[in-house]
Specification:
heterodimer, A: 63 residues, mainly alpha, B: 209 residues, Four Helix Bundle (Hemerythrin (Met), subunit A), two-stranded antiparallel sheet, 2 strands, elongated
Chain lengths: 63, 209
């Protein structure tokens, strides 16, 4: 039961953070320069991390 | 936000970024390359430990391994999911802080930086809590040794990152950085995103795989 509540909280957090990160990535998509390119790569991987959390919350991964 | 407005905003930031004297620009670009190389070297460091973990994991027929007390349980995924979101959220706030600085919005920068520092400390607190409740010990099994070594090394990076961010916050409020000269903030942002992304790998390896 407690585990399900934790997963519910994590799911909501992952949606918020993943959505925000994806939006930041979209906003910065046209920027140039080494620092911006590395930042975009890392933002994309962070969004992927949020996707992993969502999959874990539904038991698709790590179940 | 419309794409044209976004592009205009990016161009204004880029123009300010390039408006510095040529010597500073050259030094900044070299420092940036050096910092990215440092991050790559850190990727190599983590990769070595990750491959050692994968080797150990594949050396035994069962995972989690079986000890004299029976098979070890898996790590708690639910709590790790929340803690991961805290760390990923700190990456988002750090990016917002950097963008605020680039757009000369110092109050928003301060707010997002403080949020990042608080979330970073929150992640470390979560990790400390987990260390007290995790079903393995450092010396009890290869699973525990790998877990504490890798997550401990990552936690140390986060700890250093929090100190780094606090330093940047103080420096920014003392006027060390300007609207066109802010390499320290750029490096801090890259470092913080880097520790976030390393956690993506560790989260998958220890909790989901």
């Amino acid at each position: 039961m407690a585990s399900n509540i934790e997963k519910g909280i994590a799911f909501v957090l992952a949606l918020v953070v993943g959505g925000t990160t994806s939006f930041q990535l979209y906003k910065d998509w046209t920027t140039t320069g080494l620092d911006n390119q590395v930042t975009k790569l890392l933002l994309g991987l962070m969004a992927f991390g949020c996707l992993l959390v969502v999959l874990a919350c539904f038991g698709i991964l790590g179940g | 936000m419309a794409v044209s407005a976004l592009n205009a905003s990016h161009e204004a930031v880029h123009a300010r970024y390039e408006s510095v004297d040529p010597l500073y620009r050259e030094v900044r670009d070299i420092r940036l390359l050096g910092f990215v190389l440092f991050l790559i070297s850190d990727v190599v460091l983590f990769s070595m430990f990750i491959f050692a973990y994968l080797y150990l994991r594949n050396s035994v027929p069962n995972w989690p391994p079986i000890t004299t007390a029976g098979q070890l349980p898996r790590f708690d995924v639910a709590f790790a999911c929340i803690n991961s979101c805290v760390l990923f959220g700190s990456g988002a706030t750090m990016h917002a802080a950097m963008e605020s600085w680039k757009h000369l919005n110092k109050p928003a920068f301060n707010l997002w930086m403080l949020a990042t520092i608080v979330l970073g400390i929150g992640f470390l607190s979560g990790q400390a809590y987990e260390y007290q409740h995790v079903p393995v010990t450092w010396t009890g099994s290869t699973m525990g040794a790998s877990f504490f070594t890798l997550t401990g090394m990552h936690g140390f990076h986060v700890f250093i990152g929090v100190i780094y961010l606090i330093t940047l916050y103080i420096q920014a409020n003392r006027g060390v950085y300007t609207g066109s000269k802010y390499f320290g903030l750029t490096a801090g942002t890259l470092y913080w995103h880097f520790v976030d992304v390393i956690w993506v790998a560790l989260f998958y390896l220890f909790y989901l795989m």
